Amino acid sequence: PFIVTELCQRGNLHEAVVAQYELNPEGFEYYRMLTMCLDIAKSLAYLHSLGIIHRDVKTTNFLVGEDFTVKMIDFGVSRVLTTSLMTTVGTPTFMAPEVLGGKTVYTELADVYSFGLVIYELLSGAEPYADVPALSLAMEVLKGVRPTLRPEVVNRANPDFIVMMKQCWSKEESDRPGFKEIMVTLLRLRNAPPPSGAQKPTEAEAAKMQVSAEAIANAHDKSLLAYEWYHGKLPKDKAVKLLSGKGVGTFLVRDSSRPGCFAASVVFADGIRHILVQPGTNGRYVVDALDNKNYNFRSIPAVVRSYSNLLVSSLGRSA
């Protein structure tokens, strides 16, 4: 018997970082690094949406493909999140303060802390706490000591990216963002102008930055917050106010009062209508139509278009 698995030509993420910095002392092209961080954030957001904590987030637990796509591996110490999750496991240099300190209960925010250190290694090319003796590591982390970045490294990244990284490794769990918020930040940064010290993106990388509405809408419910047209728990009456006066085909998506479902609020020629949408399998969406048949769609804009020949446009949260 044998098992066939996907080949990730660049090895684990730590190996990819070492190879890249040997090739170019400035490390990864800025937008490529953002995309790699987004891959990691998406995978952890999905894991957390299932109620599972990875508990050993580090660069050697991600594999990198030829095109620099990053994939998560090693779920050997992952556990379902419960109020009694108290086993101290993980790799010390990436371990959150609450875990190092022996806290009896910890949450998915321990993974967020570790993610911040993964970002540090991607950005700097250095392993976190490489110069801190193992015996004093826990003491230093609990005192609030964090890795430092050289000025030239800081200049290669957007200041908001540095802020996000530091928020991830905050000592207090309540000060750390969740992965939904992290994805929002990364998507915004990936579509913003590059910092002055960053390398210019290649044509291939620039193409990856163009996130189409169709690609966005293929996301499952747990990652919808990363996209501007998703308004969360916005009440129906406020959705109507936001859409009033907008063109036919404009839509926004919000949580439905029915658990686990969404409502697509859409401007039609005869007024604003609200379409109940339920996440289905394989990233698709299910709508119960008037003819009592279930219809599957590959994206929420496709759901909206199915009701009429609309030129669909989304209404962002900042509108």
From TrEMBL:
Gene3D superfamilies: SH2 domain, Transferase(Phosphotransferase) domain 1. Keywords: ATP-binding, Kinase, Nucleotide-binding, SH2 domain, Transferase, Tyrosine-protein kinase. SUPFAM superfamilies: Protein kinase-like (PK-like), SH2 domain. The keyword ATP-binding applies. Residues 1-189 form the Protein kinase domain. It comes from the Eukaryota. It catalyses: L-seryl-[protein] + ATP = O-phospho-L-seryl-[protein] + ADP + H(+); L-threonyl-[protein] + ATP = O-phospho-L-threonyl-[protein] + ADP + H(+). PROSITE patterns: PROTEIN_KINASE_DOM, PROTEIN_KINASE_ST, SH2. Signal peptide: none annotated. Residues 229-309 form the SH2 domain. GO terms for molecular function: ATP binding; protein serine/threonine kinase activity; protein tyrosine kinase activity. CDD domains: SH2. Required for proper chemotaxis and phagocytosis; proper spatiotemporal control of F-actin levels in chemotaxing cells. Negative regulator of the PI3K (phosphatidylinositol 3 kinase) pathway. Predominantly phosphorylates serines and threonines and tyrosines at a lower level. This is Non-specific protein-tyrosine kinase. It comes from Sexangularia sp. CB-2014.
